[in-house]
UniProtKB/TrEMBL annotation:
CDD domains with a match to the protein in the record: MATE_yoeA_like
Transmembrane stretches, start-end: 66-86, 106-127, 147-168, 175-198, 204-225, 246-267, 273-296, 322-342, 362-379, 391-415, 421-444
Entry function: Multidrug efflux pump.
Molecular-function annotations in GO: antiporter activity; xenobiotic transmembrane transporter activity
Compartment(s) where it occurs, according to its Swiss-Prot or TrEMBL record: Cell membrane
Official protein name in the record: Probable multidrug resistance protein NorM
Keywords, in A-Z order: Antiport, Cell membrane, Ion transport, Membrane, Transmembrane, Transmembrane helix, Transport
GO CC, one annotated term: plasma membrane
GO-annotated biological processes: monoatomic ion transport
Membrane association type: Multi-pass membrane protein
Length: 458
């Protein structure tokens, strides 16, 4: 097949932008929510059905959330590099590049997963010991993380596969695969905790099994699909050049995502110093508020994918329109989701832990963290816009400065002066505001659509 003749059938390059971005974003948001339900069901079930030490079990699973976020977010960022490379090839109508990128992406996922398992198992004990985890929580936290690390190849494979599907605008398939595995995850959680009495170990095993199922479902579809992202196991030809492009975009994106997780690990260390009740409250609140984050993040993912395809097709004015629509729809959807969550926030927190102290502390965390979510829409949309043009290092560096820098200063210099939970949580909206301003300046300075349009006209 001629490299430039086949039309991949994308709908991102023409027609109205408003409804297409919305139709892309909603399944992505739902997929993120289902992924979070893996961890949320872990916490809810051990908090409600564990035979003994329920608060310690909730704290143990929650204490691992920043580490899980660090690992998964880093590799999801690299997977986003695959998304950009494939989407640009779709816009350019280069089926051979699409084929190479799909094969390279999935092999990269498996290799990264195996390496993470081996390295993680060797260092996780030391890592957890540095996080000020209370003695009654530490053994359970270590047990959960060791089991979770064993499942990293399947976890990364699913995320890379989902990124491949999204590069052509197919967001429902990853959602359906995750829905099936999510139901299985909840059933297994209940079985291992109530019937087998495995508590923290049981929910970790259930999560790994569910991720294996979701990755195998998507792999089976990729092998049989008639779309340009079809995978052939009989003719695997990973490309070093394509891998280099994926990593050039994906590594800074992974760093950008990881910076949040690194900063959150530092914040989690400060939270741990406030006691088991605050740890449990923060863990429960995180597992509620994260659903609103997936709403806003879905529009920023749409921005990256739509911009990537239209940049590949040379439709630079449409790229700028996509940015404006993504920000507008993202803010509206985020505000609506926050209002819905806060209206029943205490009831949602009670699902994870019924202690009045846990619920009150958790609700205050949600209120403060949500105050920064509009800034997060702006920051992530600007960042996704730049990444769609292949500009990935600049937003990564600005994230290190705006997110990690501000939160480090807050935890080590400001928080010790007022060591309370609400005061600690103020670092979230403050750091997001600073980062949004920095990212807006980067977009104004780089002006990628204007620059590329001028270059194409020469």
């Amino acid at each position: 097949m001629n490299e430039s003749s086949a039309h991949p059938g994308s709908t991102m390059l023409q027609g109205p932008v408003w409804n297409r971005i919305l139709l892309f974003a909603l399944p992505v948001a739902a997929t993120g929510m289902l992924e979070q339900l893996f961890n949320a069901s872990d916490i809810a079930i051990v908090g409600s059905f564990a035979q003994t030490g329920r608060t310690e079990a909730v704290a143990a699973v929650g204490a691992n959330s920043p580490i899980v976020g660090l690992l998964v977010n880093f590799f999801v960022g690299i997977a986003l590099g695959a998304n950009v490379v494939i989407a640009q090839a779709v816009g350019q109508r280069k089926p051979k590049t699409i084929e190479q990128a799909v094969q390279t992406s999935l092999l990269l996922a498996i290799a990264c997963g195996l390496a993470t398992t081996l390295i993680g198992e060797a260092v996780i004990g030391t890592g957890l010991s540095l996080m000020n985890i209370p003695a009654d929580v530490y053994p359970h936290a270590l047990q959960y993380m060791r089991i979770y690390l064993a499942g990293m190849p399947a976890i990364l494979l699913y995320n890379f596969e989902a990124s491949v599907f999204r590069s052509i605008g197919e967001t429902k398939t990853p959602l359906l695969a995750l829905a099936v595995s999510g139901v299985i995850n909840v059933i297994l959680n209940l079985f291992f905790v109530i019937v087998v009495h495995l508590s923290v170990a049981g929910v970790a095993i259930a999560t790994v099994i569910a991720n294996v199922i979701s990755s195998l479902i998507l792999l089976a579809i990729l092998l049989k699909t008639d779309k340009p992202i079809r995978l052939s196991l009989h003719d695997l030809h990973p490309s070093r050049a394509v891998a280099a492009r994926i990593l050039r975009i994906g590594l800074p994106a992974g760093l950008q995502s990881s910076v949040f997780a690194i900063a959150n690990i530092i914040i989690q260390t400060a939270i741990n110093s406030l006691g088991t009740v605050v740890m449990a409250a923060s863990s429960a609140a995180f597992n509620v508020e994260i659903f609103c984050y997936y709403v806003l993040n879905s529009f920023t993912q749409a921005c990256t994918t739509f911009v990537s395809q239209n940049y590949g097709a040379g439709q630079f004015d449409r790229c700028r329109k996509i940015l404006g629509v993504s920000i507008t729809e993202g803010i509206l959807a985020t505000v609506l989701s926050i209002a819905l969550v806060l209206s029943c926030g205490r009831s949602l927190l009670a699902i994870f832990n019924s202690s009045p102290q846990v619920i009150e502390n958790g609700y205050w965390r949600m209120v403060i963290v949500f105050a920064g979510y509009v800034f997060s829409v702006l920051y992530e949309s600007f960042s996704g816009y730049l990444r769609g043009f292949g500009i990935s290092l600049v937003p990564a560096l600005l994230t290190v400065l705006g997110v990690c820098g501000v939160r480090l200063v807050w935890v080590f210099a400001v928080f010790p002066q007022h060591p309370t939970f609400p005061f600690l949580m103020l670092c979230f909206p403050i750091s997001l505001c600073v980062t949004a301003l920095l990212m807006a300046g980067a977009v104004f300075h780089c002006r990628p659509a204007v620059r590329e349009k001028a270059a194409a006209a020469q």
